[in-house]
Amino acid sequence: MDILRRPSWIFDMDGTLTVPMHDFGWLRTQLAIPETQDILATLQSWPSPRREEAWAFINTWEDELARGARAWPDAGPLLQRLRDRGCRVGILTRNSRAGARITLEAAGLLSYFELEDILGRDDAEAKPSPDGVLRLVSQWGSSPAQAVMVGDWIHDVRAGKTAGAASILVRRHPPQGWEHEADHVVDELAELL
């Protein structure tokens, strides 16, 4: 893959670098959010104080899960290879920035990232918005044409594509029907090594 030579790499976290632990069906039930609605967008539309109470609930839930995070076995070797090549690596997650740092530390992956290169929902518009991709490449002095967005869900693929970056889908879920939108599809991160 020619895109493997690109110098700027942006990763989703949960499900991509770390073993997924979030039960979004359970969360939807707790917050009474229908399956057809995006959780983050729905919360943004709620009035105060309901919105703040829901965010507090989610932040507590995410932080509890984060402390038990585990990395996929091939995450560290891939990040190390990219760092050895002089690539910039960043995180773009729909989790909070604080939760992302806790997750990465618990999973043994935090040392691969500069702290300012970990963006959460409090730093950029949530994926599928390209905002976070554009922010990272800008702070690196790079461009979307030199970047790769790696993730396990359609939000990751669309964020990268809309920004003008290449996208790699790590197939961690049963077929959803949108996989063709990614530039490349792999079954494991090890394939990128």
Describe the structure.
The protein is α/β, with parallel strands linked by helices. The protein folds into two domains: 2-20 and 69-192, 3-Layer(aba) Sandwich (Rossmann fold), CATH 3.40.50; 24-66, 434 Repressor (Amino-terminal Domain), CATH 1.10.260. It is built from seven helices and six strands. It has helices at 24-31, 39-45, 50-66, 75-84, 97-106, 131-139, 154-163, and strands spanning 8-11, 88-92, 118-119, 147-151, 166-170, 184-186. The protein has a six-stranded parallel beta sheet, sandwiched between helices.
Largest sheet: 6 strands, parallel
Secondary-structure element string: EHHHHEHEHEHEE
CATH architecture annotation name of the largest domain:
3-Layer(aba) Sandwich
What is the global morphology? globular
Strand content: 5-15%
CATH topology of the largest domain: Rossmann fold
Q: Give me the count of strands.
A: 6
Kindly provide the radius of gyration, computed on alpha-carbon positions and rounded to a whole number of angstroms: 16 Å
Structural class: alpha/beta
Count of domains? 2
- How helical, in percent, are the residues? 25-40%
Return the average pLDDT rounded to an integer.
Answer: 94
Helix count, DSSP H or I runs of 4 or more residues: 7
**Low-confidence runs of at least 5 consecutive residues:** none
CATH superfamily placement of the largest domain:
HAD superfamily/HAD-like
Strand order of the largest sheet: 3-2-1-4-5-6
